[in-house]
Amino acid sequence: MHVLAEADLRLDAQAIDYVLLAFYFLLVLGIGYLARRQVSTSLDFFLSGRSLPAWVTGLAFVAANLGAIEVMGMSANGAQYGMPTAHYFWIGAVPAMLFLGIVMMPFYYGSKVRSVPEFMLRRFGKPAHLVNGISFALAQILIAGANLYLLALVVNLLLGWPIWVSVILAAVIVLAYTALGGLSAAIYNEVLQFFVIVAALLPLTIVGLAKVGGWQGLVDKVSAGPGGPEQLDSWPGNQLTGFGSNFLSVLGIVFGLGFVLSFGYWTTNFVEVQRAMASKSMSAARRTPIIGAIPKMLVPFIVIIPGMVAGVTVTELAGDNKAALLAGESAPSGATFNDALLLLMRDLLPNGMLGIAIAGLLASFMAGMAANLSSFNTVFTYDIWQTYVVKDRPDGYYLRAGRVVTALATLLAIGTAFIAASYANLMDYLQQLFSFFNAPLFATFILGMFWKRMTPTAGWTGLVSGTAAAVGVFLLAETGVWDLPGQGASFVGAGAAFVVDIAVSVAVTYATQPKPEAQLVGLVYSLTPKENLKHSTTGEDAGWYRRPGLLAGIVLVVTILFNIIF
C-alpha cells in the first residue's frame, strides 16, 4: 500500500473543518435513530415497508452508486484516461437505468419479491437461488471493503491516524446507523449524502477549471501533457480499453461495458433494485431509476473534470509523475491516481470549504458502504439464513438476525479492505468484480425472463460456468498469457461470462425438463398478464411529468447529445 510522505498529503484542516465534520456525523446518526422508530417488522428494516416517494428513492438510487469507488475511482480514471471515463456514465449506466425502469421494475415490484435472489428462486428453484445468494453476498463484502479502505485513507490523511485505526472507526459509524434504522436510515442518509457530495465537488470543479484557464485552458494543458489529446475525446477510448484497434475498442465499450457490464449491474444488482422496491407504488418504482438517471448523466462533470485538472496541475501527478504512472511504473512522488481528488482539494480549497469537501467524500464512502451492508443483510437473512439454515421462525427473529448479520458483514468488510489496498486504481478492481458476479447473472436473468423453455438446471449451470469463464480471463491476464492492459481484462471477462453463460444455458435447457407454464406466470414476460405490468396514472401518480416512458425518452435524448458533443 502506498503512503505518501505525511507532510505532503496531510490536509491542512482547521477547527472549523472539524466542527463541520462532527456536525455531519451527528446528523447521520440522528437520521439512523429517527428511522429506527419506524422499524417494527423485517419488511420495514429491509425494504422500508414499501412506503417511500419516488424522488427520495430516485436520489437514493443514484447516491447508493455514488460511493467512494465512484467518486475517487472516477476522478482517478479522469486523471489517468480523461474524457473516455464518461463512458461509465453515458454508455455504462444511463441506458441500463432506463431499461430497468421501463422493462424490469414491473416484474420485480409486481411479483412482490424481497430480493433479486428470491426472483431466481421462483424462476429456477433452489440451486440457482443458492449460487446467486452466495455470489452476491461475497461481492457485497468485497465492494464494501473497497469503500471502507478509501474512507480510511481519507481519515488517515486528515488526522494522521494509522490506516487500520481509520478502517475500524469508519466501519463503526456506518454500522451504527445501518443497524439502527435498516434501509430507511440508509436511504434517507443517501439523499442527504447526495446533496453533501454535490456541495463538495461542484465548487472544486469550478475552482479547478478557473485555475487552468477554463475549459480551453484544460484542453491545452492535457493536449501538451502525457496521454495527449486522446484524453479529450470520449471515443474511441483506446487508452481506457487497452485495445490498439479503434473498432475493437468501440466494440469493447459498447458490448462489454454498455451492454454486459452495465445491464448486468443496473438491472440485477440488488443494491440498486432494493431502493426502487422501497417505493410506495408501481409507478414510483418505475420512475426511481429514471429519476436517478438525471443526476447520473451530469455526475461526470463533477468527478472526471477534477481528475483531469489534478492530472495537469498537481505536482505529484503531473508531468514525469503522470508519464511514469501511465507506463505502469511507480511515480517518483509516490502518489497514485487514487490520490487525485484529495491532492486537488489540498491545493485548491480554503478552510471551511475543505470541511464540506471532506464531509462530502466521507458521505460518498458511507453511502456506498451502507448500500452494500443493507443489501447484504437482506440477501443473507432472507435468501440464505431463512431459506436454508433456520426456517419458520417469527418475524422478530429475522429482524434481530438482520442486525447481527450487519455487524458480522462489517467485520468481514474490514478484512477485505486490505485486498482493495493492493490496487493502484480501484476502478480496475471494481470492474473485475463486476465481470465475475454481475455479467453471468444478467445473462441467466435476461434469458430466463424472455425464454419460458429455459430450465431450472440451466439456471444454475449457466451461472457457474459464466463466472468460471470470467475468472479464467482474469487469470490469463494476471499471469501475462493474454496481454490486456487498461480495463480490457474486465471488459473481455464480462463478454466471455455472458457468452459462455448463454451457450451453456441453451445446451443444458435442451437436455433437461422445463417447469410447467402455470408456475412461471409473473416471472416470464410472455406468460405475465398485461394488467400486472401496468401502473396507476391517478392520484399521486397523475401528471405528464410522472409518466415513466416520457421521462425515459427525454433522458435518453440528452445522453445521446452528450455522446455526440464530447
Description:
- The chain has 566 residues and is mainly alpha-helical.
- The protein has one domain: Sodium/glucose cotransporter (Up-down Bundle), CATH 1.20.1730.10.
- Helix content is 73%, strand content 0%.
- The chain is built from 24 helices and no strands.
- It has helices at residues 6-9, 15-36, 42-47, 54-64, 68-81, 87-90, 94-110, 116-124, 126-159, 163-212, 214-224, 238-241, 246-268, 270-277, 282-298, 300-313, 319-326, 340-348, 353-389, 395-420, 426-450, 456-478, 488-509, 548-565.
- The longest helix has 50 residues, at 163-212.
- It is globular and about 65 Å long.
- The two termini are 35 Å apart.
- The relative contact order is 0.18.
The average pLDDT value, as a whole number, equals 81
**Shape, principal axes of CA atoms:** globular
Number of strands: 0
Secondary structure tally, helices: 24
Succession of helices and strands: HHHHHHHHHHHHHHHHHHHHHHHH
Radius of gyration: 23 Å
Secondary-structure-derived class: mainly alpha
Euclidean distance between termini CA atoms: 35 Å
Based on the structure given, which CATH architecture is correct?
Up-down Bundle
The CATH class? Mainly Alpha
Portion of residues in beta strands equals: under 5%
Q: By CATH's scheme, which homologous superfamily applies?
A: Sodium/glucose cotransporter
Q: Helix content range of the residues, please? A: over 70%
Give unreliable regions as ranges. 1-7
Query: For the report, how would you describe the main beta sheet?
Result: none
CATH topology: Sodium/glucose cotransporter
Number of domains: 1
